[in-house]
Design brief:
Chain A is an alpha/beta fold. Chain A has two domains: 183 residues, Rossmann fold, CATH 3.40.50; 86 residues, Helicase, Ruva Protein, domain 3. Chain A is built from 14 helices and eleven strands. Chain A has a five-stranded parallel beta sheet, sandwiched between helices. A two-stranded antiparallel ribbon of chain A has the order 2-3. A six-stranded mixed beta sheet of chain B has the order 14-13-12-15-16-17, sandwiched between helices. A five-stranded parallel beta sheet of chain B has the order 2-5-8-1-9. A two-stranded antiparallel sheet of chain B has the order 3-4. Chain B folds into four domains: 201 residues, Rossmann fold (3-Layer(aba) Sandwich); 132 residues, no CATH class; 50 residues, no CATH class; 184 residues, von Willebrand factor, type A domain (Rossmann fold, 3-Layer(aba) Sandwich). In chain B, helix 19 runs antiparallel to helix 20 and helix 19 packs across helix 24. The chains are: A alpha/beta (352), B alpha/beta (595). At the A-B interface, helix 4, strand 5, helix 5 and helix 9 of A face helix 4, helix 7, strand 6, strand 7 and helix 11 of B.
């Protein structure tokens, strides 16, 4: 799959051999996951997406495809912190070169074995040993700035690294105080985690930090399954022709995201929708303000995505399961899944 | 090797054929998981090696491998002597274009399996360590050798999922196989197939009905993952190529479905005409398929053309051993979580991971990690004495500092639940409820929970140590009740589990829920007195091993036996005659906090 396009530091040789990514628009079914990803692409502040699901449901494919779909972003040449031109505030402005440059949207695949120093950044080994200098070597968080940070099987990641990631994901800033270094830099990214609840779960307090969550299942519909096979096979055999065939649809999706981002600041939420949002949260028993806030942001992003200037009840209703599902207080003696509980609450509320 | 009737399909021949298919499409097929089989496996691997291009690397991956060796890392010696960061590639990168053999794959920890799985997905090995990024292109085949003795021990699911072929060679009797002949055959027949055919791979275009047949078969057999039919498709393609054809034939599809989908089946097809149980004395049971021969499926078919998916499904059904079919038929779609990931259950938290708490002098090896800044700090005062030039640091061995990490010991709570008839069913429901409540709490604290049930003649580990609420709930709800009370067996199983947890560095806590009325002895006999003696001996063993425990007496009128057993095992005695799930939970929690 598409590797990390922005990181030609130690491996220029391999970035050239980058493989094509499966087109986002060609993914069959999985509408909820695609919607959640698009919403978070429109408004990164929503705080990441957690994907629950069985193996072989196309979780990683979808996330990687979205990152590959997004248009290149403008960057400051020479900057190792993915600074945006005009807003350069990174710790090393002296490395900035004049001129213009663009880079693909970063997609950082966090390996499970990654150490804390590699994630947050650490002392630059070479300069420390060679020149005796104390310099900061930016980590994965810096590299993911303005892009995606993807963690497959997040439930297997060390707890303290998960804590750290969520912290940065919410604050948008990475603060490093270690090894005698004191550095802070911007790190705004969409955190995407995936995991299979059968293999151990995330602590609820971590789960709550994710903005949206989706549950993916293998499509049971035969036609869909055949279609998946067909497309995977076509992509494998003739990747160029396949991506070409889908390029129009990809451009359309891209346009939607761009339009959505543009519209987002001007989308308004009427009072009755706000009231309804609180009612939903109360009805399902979602703890805390975070749920309500995410619910509203997600509804707004969805409206923007659909080129509506006002958030409607319908928008709210459609994002409710995404924004709230993972925030319900767990009642172990209740067999009903959280999705069903939300659906039930929505039924009664919207019927009234 | 042909024996009539009971002879299972020739697994060995299948496995060897699969090996050759793997060599044709290593990227697409991922590899194979071989269970049991001893020397037979060597024949399969020999096939694979012979079929791969000459000089393809083969690497054995020990289960205890550390991440540095697996993914690559810093070459410390070279780094210190040159003053520049020098990296060293890991085993996965070394295996590029070749084979990674994983012996004892069932012992492989998830944290090792996950990066291997990631590398298989992306074709690239990435290590992020010690302030540097190592990245190398690597595509390899995985051969997982599974030596598990327990039926439910398996290589990590994340890995199995990415391998097209799963074979159980343990059923093949060595005496029936002429091993030497098999090995000789390899030398003669298997020229490297990979190189001569690799080009043709993308030119083989599967017709629509092939895709449909595979999708239908997978769905009918309850195979959920979309990877499975995709693997089957690639296997069919490789089979055609192996035969020198450009078109996928019916036989290719049948073969692929049999090899890939068969072992993944989780349920019987619902169709009425496919009832292999009844059909078994008759002929249609498989003639052990001489696999490379593409005509075999056609022969066994009647002259009337059938839809392809029927043909494929039949091929799969014919290949499944009968006991598997019977099992699938009875348990139907209830795919016990057992069959999936458990095996080595828990992650072991070593002192090499976690939150750093300090440094000490030492040599970074065996997973211990260098603390660079402290090493430099230690070396700094000596630079002048050591005659270092400016811009150069002279570091000696005794300057090296390694990081220490906080190692939390985590709790494993083991429930031993009396599911006998005397513990009335209502009590069982309450015990289940209490277990669920404790589990919900355990998963907040990241502790583990295990469940042992005893009823009838024996005790059984219903749930090995886990943190998964989903799995625990499933196995709890499936727990039946009734029968005698083999208390001794239950206590022994619980103790063994606790000792195993302790040897993995965890803190076990036993919770025993029973009415204390043992009536089945350790050997399964129903002599009451012996049963009670055995139970007492088992309780004493728990006491001797010093495992913290709580004994919940669930009988309607608590009697002295319960208290006595609790005393012998050094457990807190909690008579809870009318407790519901919540009070039971509160009581056990209280006991645990005290101990």
């Amino acid at each position: 799959m598409l590797a990390h396009p922005s990181c030609g530091v130690s491996n220029n040789r391999y970035t050239k051999m980058m493989r094509k990514s499966f087109p986002f628009s060609a993914i069959v079914g999985q509408d909820e996951m695609k919607l959640a990803l698009l919403i978070s692409a429109v408004d990164a502040r929503i705080g990441g997406v957690m994907v629950f699901g069985d193996r072989g449901t196309g979780k990683s494919t979808a996330v990687r495809a979205l990152a590959a779909l997004l248009p290149p972003m403008a960057v400051v040449p020479g900057c190792r912190y993915n600074c945006m031109p005009g807003q350069a505030v990174c710790p090393t402005p002296e490395t900035h070169l004049p001129g213009k440059a663009s880079a693909p949207v970063p997609f950082v695949d966090l390996p499970l074995g990654a150490t804390e120093d590699r994630v947050v950044g650490a002392l630059d080994l070479e300069r420390a040993l060679g020149a005796g200098e104390k310099a900061f070597e930016p980590g994965l968080l810096a590299r993911a700035h303005r892009g995606f940070l993807y963690i497959d099987e997040i439930n297997l990641l060390e707890d303290h690294i998960v804590d750290l990631l969520l912290d940065v994901a919410v604050s948008g800033e990475n603060v490093v105080e270690r090894e005698g270094l004191s550095v802070r830099h911007a790190a705004r990214f969409v955190l995407v985690g995936s995991g299979n609840p059968e293999e151990g779960e995330l602590r609820p307090q971590l789960l709550d930090r994710f903005g949206l969550s989706v549950e993916v299942r293998t499509p049971q519909d035969l036609k869909q399954r055949v279609e998946i096979l067909k497309r995977c096979d076509a992509f494998e055999r003739t990747p160029d022709a396949f991506t070409e065939h889908w390029s129009k649809a990809e451009r359309k999706t891209l346009k939607r995201i761009a339009k959505g981002r543009e519209l987002l600041p001007s989308v308004t939420i009427p009072d009755d929708v706000l009231t309804r949002a609180s009612e939903i949260c109360m009805a399902v028993g979602a703890d805390g303000l975070r749920g309500e806030l995410t619910l509203m942001r997600a509804a707004r992003a969805l409206a923007a995505l659909e080129e509506a200037s006002i958030v409607t009840q319908d928008h709210l209703r459609r994002v409710s399961p995404l924004a709230l599902r993972h925030r319900l207080r767990r009642n172990v003696l209740d067999e009903t899944g959280s999705t069903a509980r939300i659906e039930r609450a929505l039924e009664t509320l919207f019927a009234a | 090797m042909t024996l009539p009737g009971e002879m299972p399909p020739d697994v060995l021949a299948d496995a060897r054929l699969a090996a050759r298919l793997c060599a044709i499409d290593p990227v697409g097929l991922g590899g194979m998981s071989l269970r049991g089989g001893g020397e037979l496996r060597d024949a399969v691997i020999a096939n694979l090696v012979a079929a791969m291009p000459l000089g393809a690397p083969i690497r054995r991956l020990p289960a205890h491998i550390d991440e540095e060796r697996l993914l690559g890392g810093l070459d410390l010696g070279a780094t210190l002597s040159t003053g520049k960061a020098v990296s060293r590639v890991g085993l996965l990168a070394e295996a590029a274009g070749g084979i990674v053999v994983i012996p004892m794959a069932e012992r492989l920890s998830d944290s090792v399996a996950a990066p291997i799985a990631a590398a298989m997905d992306t074709g690239e090995v990435v290590a992020e360590r010690e302030g540097m990024t190592l990245r190398s292109e690597s595509r390899f085949l995985v051969v997982a050798l599974d030596d598990a003795s327990e039926a439910d021990e398996r290589p990590p699911a994340s890995l199995r999922e990415r391998m097209a072929f799963w074979f159980d060679l343990s059923a093949v009797e060595l005496s029936r196989v002429d091993l030497r002949a098999a090995l000789q055959e390899v030398a003669v027949a298997a020229a490297p197939v990979a190189r001569s055919h690799a080009v043709a791979l993308e030119q083989v275009i599967p017709p629509a009905d092939v895709l449909e047949a595979l999708a239908v078969t997978a769905a009918v057999l309850g195979v959920d993952s979309i990877r499975a039919p995709l693997f089957a498709l690639r296997a069919a393609r490789a089979s055609a190529i192996l035969d020198g054809r450009m078109a996928i034939s019916e036989a290719d599809v049948a073969l692929a479905a049999r090899l890939v989908l068969g072992p993944r089946a989780t349920r019987m097809p619902p169709s009425p005409e496919a009832e292999p149980e009844d059909a078994e004395p008759e002929a249609p049971e498989p003639p052990p398929p001489p696999p490379p021969d593409s005509d075999s499926a056609n022969d066994s078919e009647s002259s009337e053309p059938k839809p392809l998916d029927d043909v494929v499904l039949e091929a799969v059904l014919a290949s499944l051993p009968k006991d598997v079919l019977a099992k699938l038929a009875t348990q139907n779609a209830r795919r016990g979580p057992q069959s999936r990931t458990q095996g080595r259950g828990e992650k072991r938290r070593s002192t090499t991971r976690g939150r750093p708490v300090g440094v000490r002098a030492g040599i970074p090896r065996g997973g211990l990690r260098l603390s660079l800044i402290d090493t430099l700090r230690a070396a700094a005062p000596w630079q002048r004495v050591r005659g270092a030039q400016s811009g150069q640091v002279k570091v000696r061995k005794d300057d090296l500092r390694i990081r220490r990490f906080e190692s939390r010991t985590e709790a494993t709570t083991i429930f031993a639940v009396d599911a006998s008839g005397s513990s009335a069913l209502a009590r069982l429901a309450e015990a289940k409820g209490a277990v669920e409540l404790l589990l919900a709490e355990a998963y907040v604290k990241r502790a583990q929970v295990a469940l042992v049930a005893f009823r009838g003649q024996t005790s059984e580990i219903i749930l090995p140590p886990t943190r998964s609420l989903a799995r625990a709930k499933k196995s709890l709800s499936a727990l039946p009740g009734g029968g005698g009370t083999p208390l001794a067996a239950g206590l022994n199983t619980a103790r063994e589990l606790a000792e195993a947890a302790r040897s993995r560095g965890r803190t076990p806590f036993l919770v025993i829920l029973t009415d204390g009325r043992a009536n089945i002895a350790a050997d399964g006999t129903t002599v009451r007195q012996r049963a009670e003696d055995d139970a007492e001996a088992a309780a004493r063993a728990i006491g001797a091993s010093g495992i913290a425990a709580a004994f919940v007496d669930t009988s309607q009128r608590p009697r002295p036996e319960g208290a006595k057993l609790a005393a012998v095992m050094g457990a807190r005695y909690l008579p809870l005659p009318r407790a519901d799930a919540r009070t039971m939970h509160a009581a056990v929690k209280g006991a645990q906090d005290v101990t």
